[in-house]
Records
---
Amino acid sequence: MPRNTETKPAEPSVAAANEAVRNRFPFADTQDLADARRGFMGTASESVVRDTEGRTVWDLDAYGFLAQDCPDTANPSLWRQSRLCSDHGLFEVTDGIYQVRGFDLSNMTLVEGDHGVFVIDPLLCAETAAAGLALYRAHRGDRPVTGVLYTHSHADHFGGVRGVVSDADVAAGVPVFAPLGFLEHAVSENVYAGTAMSRRAAYMYGAALPRGERGQIGAGLGQTLSTGTVGLIPPTADLSRTGETVTVDGVRMVFQLTPGTEAPAELNVHFPDRAALCMAENATHNLHNLLTLRGAQVRDPRVWARYLTEAVDLFGTATDVAFASHHWPVWGRDRALRFLSEQRDLYAYLHDQTLRMLNQGLTATEIAETIELPPALEGAWHTHGYYGSVNHNTKAVYQRYLGWFDGNPAHLWEHPPVESARRYVAAMGGAEEVLRHARRSFAEGDFRWVAQIVNHVLFTDPDHPGARDLQADALEQLGYGSENGTWRNFYLMGALELRHGPVGTPTSTVAPDLLAALTLEQLFDALAIRVDGPRGWDADITVRWNLTDGERITMRLRNGVLTHVRGSGPAAADPDVEISLPERELRAVLLGGVEPSGLAAREDVEVKGDIGVLTELLGYLGAPDPDFAIVTP
């Protein structure tokens, strides 16, 4: 029997639930619509942004369908948010401050100085950043870029930097600012676990999903990720303290460092001469993630809330407009202060109430199903869980304080997914009996339960056509009902891959610039996490690197662990091979650009011992899998 790979309409229960959303929230409030369109100056004449090979990396018209009324296959609240996020063009924030919005997941802000323009957060890829800068110049003149600021260490805020400045510009004196610790966190997050994060990000942002009422309609924080060239120019100046003031081309900026909020290294920036406050990604028009679904370290909502209080104290009486690197600004001092205060209360409430309930013995899942926001917060559109969610954020708070274990010994040593699935399916009478039960639950509208039990069939027999079809249908319905953009994308990506097979990972942030920015310490650590431990159990190989422009580093593979030590202390074992070379050559070898067998022939390299042992050591490194399975074993 041929497989049914077509998308389905919304089931009656989903359509009814989506209709109920219309009656629950104040859709007649059009303030956000007015704010999102305020200051519009125009957009690009060419709707498609392409790379040098002609490949589309962004399509400004892809979300034109959002102008229609919300269909049954989408949550009306998410549809509203996506419509607001899809507005694209150049917008005036206040005198001399402009934003390019809708050209990527994030916004690029441009602040005019005496002679040029200062760029804040140059998007995710060079192509969209260049298109945004061209749009600005078409309306404001061909002003040179006089400086760049990365507000934090996530790639959608620095990856497009080469679209606005070059290495030559920076060498000639154009400063690049970032909060202290930026480079370490930007590189480590995208390299250490970058492959897994990118694969999960493919689900989270739904870049491979078709755009449309049954497909991807946005991610809540923005529409999706661009798929162009990600780069990085390292900062030339670290911003290290709150209250630090910097003036570039007549633009005066006062910084507030906010480490450990939305990113490990982040800052807000106030423009006192324009009464404008840039909140980076610390206060946006949605509930943000405390633990992003692509994976990251858990963020601290207690610290996040405290920094929002500090921002109000520092800048509140001198702010007439608050804007961020996502979404649209809030104008008016009273409105801006209320917005920042409600954002503060949102994160503080989730933190405090999760702790209250976990101290009463509730588990993470129980807290997530029990907690409710205060009516005043739920009634504010900007607190809705379009990107983060109350459900998964409370689980993140639980994880931050108590970890993965809920204290029940029955959960301490469970079987892994495939072994559990086989036992569940057998206990329930076999795959066909599970599917019979699941089809009844599907008809009753209990799609969560369908997904839960059919998952066991798939992890017993991933090619079972009935299970794949039913699971895809259930995930699809869950997606249709989700107010959270990333939940919808996860569900619909799961359905897509069950119906059509793996679609890969459209966007990767493990870019050459990020690899080049690794410190030697990070580079050796990055190699260590690639060692195939069991294969290397019996290996004992020591390689000494004598850097002719630096220090001595000894690395050793033993017991399946690759360690490295600087200097010549007792931890530095006697080497099997000793190689003298400049750091650039060492990097070339470790990043795979130079074969060990060719080292001895290079002019500035000296080898003592058997170079073959280096080849053997590198042979124990495994390659990450960028397309690993998610909805099947």
---
Amino acid sequence: MAPRIHRLVRFFALVVLVASVTYMAQRSNARTDLTSAGLSEVTPETRQLLRSIGTLAEVEGPEGETEAREIPPVVVTAYVSKEVPRPYVPTRSRLLNLLREMEASGGPGLTVQIHEPDAFSLEAQEAMDTYGIVPRPLVSTEGDKVDTLPVFMGVAFTSGPREEVVPFFDRGLSVEYEIVRALEVVIQPKKKVVGVLRDDTKIMGDFDLQSRRRIPRWRVVGELEKQYEVRSLNPGTPIADDVDLLFVPQVSSLTQEALDSVQAYLLAGRPALIVADPLPFFNPKLAPSQPMLPPPSQGGMMGGQQQASPKGDYRSLLATIGVDWADDHVAFDLENPEQQLSDAPRSIIVLGERGGKDTFAGRDETIDGLAQIIALFGGDLRPLSGGTTEVERLLVTGSKGGWDPFGAFVDDSNFLFGLQFRGVPPTPTRMAAEDALENIALGVRVRGQALGGGEVNAIVLADLDMFADSFFQFHERGGDLDGDGLIDMRFDNVTFLLNCIDSLLGDDRFIDLRKRQPEFRRLSKVDEMTQKANDERQAQLEQATEAANEELEEAQAALDRAVEAIRAKTDIDETTKQIMIRSAEEAENRRLQAQTEQIEREKAQQIDRIKAEHARAVDEVRDRIRVAAILWPPLPALLLGMLIFLRKRRRESSTIPESRKRKDS
């Protein structure tokens, strides 16, 4: 055989070998996830679930027992666009990887169909008409142009008459968790029931008779409906036996009759999630110190208004299960680990890492593995002195926590508009250390024998605002605030709520899956280097506030002295004395008002100066890090290049004959 033909045969043999190896690798479905988070690797529990579909498998029954049950077949229909904006590329990749894994290793009853529809194709029309999966317009900033792409990224799960649809996989959603949850829900015979007690929070939605408009329900209800049957419960009536978990949105908004029903439920050992919020930011009129809102009137303004029912003894209910709630304490924390919220009021508390230590790690399953949780104007929960239950603290402030009284946040002097929120008081009222406490607890878990008898299984949280709709939107975006695909902040409020309900129900199938998200990495070195600047800023702010208060107190004391001097005079009659006091008060009040305005202006200027100095100090730290990031990376390559150059020159020099080398004259 001629050499040229021999080389040609070898070339074609090599092509066939490469194609065969590639085909066998694809058919074997062998994948390895080399990332630190391992998000593209399916967990063993998920793989076992996929293989069990369409077979006879051992499953956990409603009472926790194991039983053999035929897992019904499931059809998975996915609609995933070919082109997505850059921030959504990792989500699309994880979704397709998991769908292909399901297609390759699923049980005999699992059918996976993957469609990549164009905007106006028949497949797109089918997705919208059959499953309600609609394209979401997303902004794409590829190159120098800004464009809007209609993107499909939804999956429908069908098993007989049952159907579950994930209409869109946002960046903040765990792909594996959403798919596994939908699979588990579509194959289970019956959803567990979460009963939400109706109260003035209107968390389940309502209809306003006066304005003739519908009040939308909170997004937390829709999130719960993905996994449970959510039922609205009438307060005051006995809670039905088929309710698996009771959710009380605001315990202080219940009548005594409703509280008695809740207490009977709790003492029967049934699980409950109770919220006791001292200052609901979305509506301060729902605070414990405020009267119950009157029921809506159907006759409008001319039809009069019905009398509101009195509030029940909610503190006694909590005391029964071993929790002491100071209902006028609004918690704060002077230490804020989230630099992007460094200017936020102290009553907005970021719970999580403190001083480089993860305060959630290794603790209760509801918080273990979470990044951060944010609370807005939460409360102060403490174990009841002499209580018999075990009270475990879940959410706690740092060592610089404390509380302010509710009255310092609101103004009820306006008769026309009623109670109004006026802001955070200028100085902290009381630190936790003054009450011999290490920190303030905003969430506790209660187990054990109650004072009234019966085993208690409850979680009590001192903030309802942490489950507001804005946190669900933040959760869906994955903490990406600027749309660059990177995590700027992460708040796991939604995950925490779902973990609480699952844990109370003894259902741990999804708790670990919810934590499988891109890891939120804090710039620990930057935080450490800017901590001194943060401490100095806080100390200066406190000094400025104290100085302003001292000047105001001195001005007020001058007014009091002038009034007392007039009262002490005995050579004038009482009428003249009152006229002189009134005149002195008016003059001193004008002077005091002018002084107050001047002091407040000087205080504001000093605070602005402190903030500017703090910003410069933080920028200096970041600039040093940026310069180091520019200068340090090329150094290893430059040193290696210099080493290779010197080594090459030395080798070249060693090969030159001695006779050709330049000799010294």
